[in-house]
Specification:
heterodimer; A: 193 residues; alpha/beta; Pyruvate-ferredoxin Oxidoreductase, domain 3; six-stranded mixed beta sheet; 8 helices; globular; B: 578 residues; Rossmann fold; 4 domains; seven-stranded mixed beta sheet; five-stranded parallel beta sheet; 17% strand; binds thiamine diphosphate
Amino acid sequence: MKEFNIIICGVGGQGILLASEILALTAMESGFDVKKSEVHGMSQRGGSVISHIRIGEKVYSPLIEKGRCDFLISFEKAETLRWVHYLKKDNPVIIVNDFKIIPPFVSLGLDQYPQNIEENLKNITKNVYFVPAIEIAQKIGESRSANILMLGLLSRFLPFEEKTWEKVIKENVPAYTLDVNLKTFKEGRTLLD
Amino acid sequence: MKILLSGNEAVARGAWEAGVKVASAYPGTPSTEILENLAKYPEIDAEWSPNEKVAFEVALGSAIAGARSMVSMKHVGLNVAADPFFSSAYTGVKGGFVIVSCDDPGMHSSQNEQDNRRYAKFAKVPLIEPSNAQEVHDFIKFAFEISEKFEIPVLFRMTTRISHTKGVVEVGERKEVPVKDYTKNPQQFIILPAHARVRHKVLEEKLINLREFSNKTELNRIEKGKNSLGIVTSGISYNYAREVFPGAWILKLGMSFPFPEDLFKEFYKNVKEVIVVEENEPFLEEEIKIMGYKAEGKKYIPLCDELTPEIVRKSFNNEELPHPEPIKSVKRPPQLCPGCPHTGVFYSLAKLKATVTGDIGCYTLGALPPHNAMDTCICMGASIGNAFGFEKARGKDFSRRLVAVIGDSTFLHSGITGLIDIVYNKGNTTVIILDNRTTAMTGHQDHPGTGITAKGERTREVDLAQLAKAVGVEEVYEVDPYNLKETLKTIKKAMEGENPSVVISKGPCALLKESREKFKTKEKKRVNDEKCLGEKCKACIRLGCPAISMIEGKAYISPLLCVGCDVCTQVCPVEAIE
Ligand SMILES: Cc1ncc(C[n+]2csc(CCOP(=O)(O)OP(=O)(O)O)c2C)c(N)n1
């Protein structure tokens, strides 16, 4: 069985925990062992959030070792940079929500928002995808489903069946948002076609 | 049935299956979800206690009375509950009694990274350390059995990575365990010195038997290796060891105190070198060295901070996997939320240039820029005693610009005794209670001031103003923290007064349902670029509201984040916020 090490990151309140939950459940339903690790608490208050998801035949460490991450899924541009050193050397995949959240430290003049993000990421791997996830999700019906769009994109790289994804999404989003979420997921899944 | 559970959910599920009848806790990351999940089971009487000491005493009482009982808390909570904890080892229990301590290596949301395994040895009770969610689920049941077999409390030690990692867990069904008969036994349960002397000897005998048990229990095992390296490990560290040293022999300890000496000796015969992989303190390493055997651990592995697979690899092999160079990102510390009621208070305290002894909760963020409005933060409840200490050291004049700031949950946890001290010992210190009607920091748990129980039932609520008056505070004010002028004026008056005073800031947490409903009716704010004074002003930025940032030299309010609380309009000198 192949192993998949995935980091989902962003800023508190962006739906990272739901996205990682759906991913982990889909892996479990597909017969894999899975561990997903994230830290609650302080991170919820607008701080940076990271979730490690490890999928394989038998997973021990809940944390991805630096140099082992296959996929870095980032919901905010600058947050991507924070975790790039977790990526493996050969051909990792980076998917970035093309969206900035300016922290107050920047407005207060205490720090600077990083420049040249695109260039820096392209130097790491050719597989970098910048996606205007919020705009696309908004067009389909709900900007808050951007997390599901990103998940759809990621799903193209993983060996789980579409119907398993859909079943798990159905069980984990509020019923009244189901249609929009399924549509958004499909859009993500076919975005690179 | 296999389901995906976090370590904390697995504690609750395992305890339910084990027939637990009574559960108590005080919230604290990373332990909080344990009681939240226990409260969902109708068979379990689950309560949020006002603090860990009370929680401990309630569960211990139930266990003495014959029921399987559990208390859970974060690591520092056990400091608060340490007094009954030590006594409980002497008295012992009838019904199974498990104490779950969730430690926080790396201090993701704590003030220290004390290693509570040392508490097991200190108080002389058995210690269980699971390494993943499945083990949590299974070991909890063992813990109750051990507790009943030896009539002793069991310390069940988790860490943040165990509590907050989800994994696949095979679960079972509940087995009811009848409450045992209760017979009065003063020699056992009243620890008068004469009784305690006897009980201490009983405890030492139990420990001898427990050590024997520890050698044989299936919680401890030897995993055969292919080379001559031997690794001793427990808890989360086991997982890192398994991945970093694929060929090594492993002594995997699920019950790590009393240390299984005979099992270790058997393990030792198979290996040439022993290394100990453990997070924080050299707990296992010391046990081995006391036995007179050679082992190394902390010589290589750092004592501070959480372990990771790469730290373990680097410590012993001095190598790392190839990976891209780190790239600098931007600082993004946690902040008070848009519409947070604490914002107005800290804005006022910064303006008043007050000396602020702080406390633990969301409001500790008032210590960060832009407010920088806090001088001390020690532990829950410390703000009030600290303020009084400042007054004693620096005099009454100084105390005209001095306040203690404490949350409602923290005040009820351990602030009230400090307030009594100020009244009793004739102080004049001011205490601000931030009454946001919840324990926000840990994810919104109810407490005795909210009028709702852990089970979601209505109950009597503590009236904070009445309580302050009842202990003798004559000056008690209530303010609306969304009204900056009033808040500032009231705090100033209270600080300058000659008597002890309490200011209660009354504003429900912005994330609570009642606030969200209120904000729904408000209009989001917008900055008029023509009026905004830009970089040279930044008055609104100094509120520290996450919805407000500077974009291209002008203030900008994100419509996605703004809740319309109206506080920023009160600080803009040119009425540019509409
Ligand atoms: C002894 C101890 N128990 C628990 C905690 C975890 N904890 C940190 S702050 C806090 C309470 C916060 O509630 P409150 O005082 O009402 O402030 P809020 O976060 O709501 O602003 C808790 C339970 C702790 N730090 N120490």
